[in-house]
Structure formats: C-alpha cells, structure tokens
Amino acid sequence: PSPTPEPTPPPTLLAETEDMGQEYLDSIVFYGDSNTNRLRAEELLSGGYSTTQVWTPMSGTLTLNRWDIDKIVYPETWTEMDVTEAMAEKKPEYLIINLGTNGVSFMDEEYFKSEYTEMVEALKAASPDTKIMLSSLYPVAQSYPYQGDINNGKLAAASGWIYDIAVEEGVRYIDLAAAVKDENGDLPESSHIGDGYHLTKAVLEDVLDYVRTHGYQ
C-alpha cells in the first residue's frame, strides 16, 4: 500500500476569516510592549482596566532582548512573574506576541532572531497546547521624531524575520500592521496619539477587529 501522504501544514500567515466573535477574542492573551499595554489603558478588552488578557511589565513597555529579564504583571493576582511562569500558570488558549519594535533600534537580524526564537521556544515549552500567533510590527508615522532609531524600513525587515521564525517554529503569523498602515506602509498621522508611535483608541479597535476576522484555524 502507498504511504499515507503527510497532511499539508496550514499556511503560516493568518488569512481573512469570518468574524470569530467576542468569545474568540476573550480567549486570547496579548503579550507585548506599550501598544499592547494600551489595550488595557483604553479598556478595549473584557474586564476593562482589570482585563486578564494583557501581559506587559509594570513599566507598560518591553524591549525584546529583555523578555526573560523584565517580569510581567500577572493580572489575575497583580503580581510580577516571568512570562514563562505566567504561561505555565494560565495556559491561555491563544497568545498573540507583538514584540520587537524597540529592539529594531539596536538589534541586527541575528541578535533579533536569536532572542525572539528563544522566547517562542520557552513559551511553547511552558504551555505546549497554547496556539501562538506572532504579530508583524506596527509602523510609525512620518512625523515620528526618532527615525534614525526606529523607522518603517527597519520595522518591515523585522516583521519579515518574525514571519521566518513563525515558519521555523510551527506557529502562526498575524499581520496586525496591515490593520493600521496606509498605502505607503506608514502609520497615518490621524492614527497616533501625537507622538507618531502610540495607536489611538479607534485604531486599536481596528486592530481587534482584524484579530477577530483573521482567526486562528
């Protein structure tokens, strides 16, 4: 008898789906930096400011190379713990990681990929059944003053590295940058809170709509 063909793995990039609904959104934990923290600050997830779906450090921001140094606030108990500890404790159904924006200012491809891969492997080991989605990095606006450190060329390149890691690690990639960028790949000037970087409440709502309509299947 002929051998059973290996099933084709699902595509890494999450494509458009039907609206997966509020219950799906409620089953996702968001791990990341200051734009992820703004999901809590703007009270956009179930539970509002007390949501249990946002993992960021007490500072509200996080740089990629410090993922295993800076503890996150575990919202259920409002205590600080390593993200791997939180992962083992909560075992979320889904995890979206949006991390690396600050890192592009000083990390080359090799350094970025090695830190990011180590993080993904540690999170997978802590909760093997959690379905992990790696996010592309949000663009900055033309008016963002620190273009020498963080700019859309660097952010797009790093998003490509994150996609490569998703393929390598057998996790999925969600292009959240697509929910916010204009036709030139920039963050529109109307989409930030005045600093060229942090997303407005309305744009974060667009991001959550994108999450719901690009479901993990």
UniProtKB/TrEMBL annotation:
Task: Report the leader peptide range.
Answer: none
Q: Which domain of life is it from?
A: Bacteria
Give any Pfam family that matches.
Lipase_GDSL_2
Domain SGNH hydrolase-type esterase residue range list: 75-202
Instruction: Give the UniProt keywords, A-Z.
Output: Hydrolase
Q: Which GO terms describe its molecular function?
A: hydrolase activity
Name of this chain's protein: SGNH/GDSL hydrolase family protein
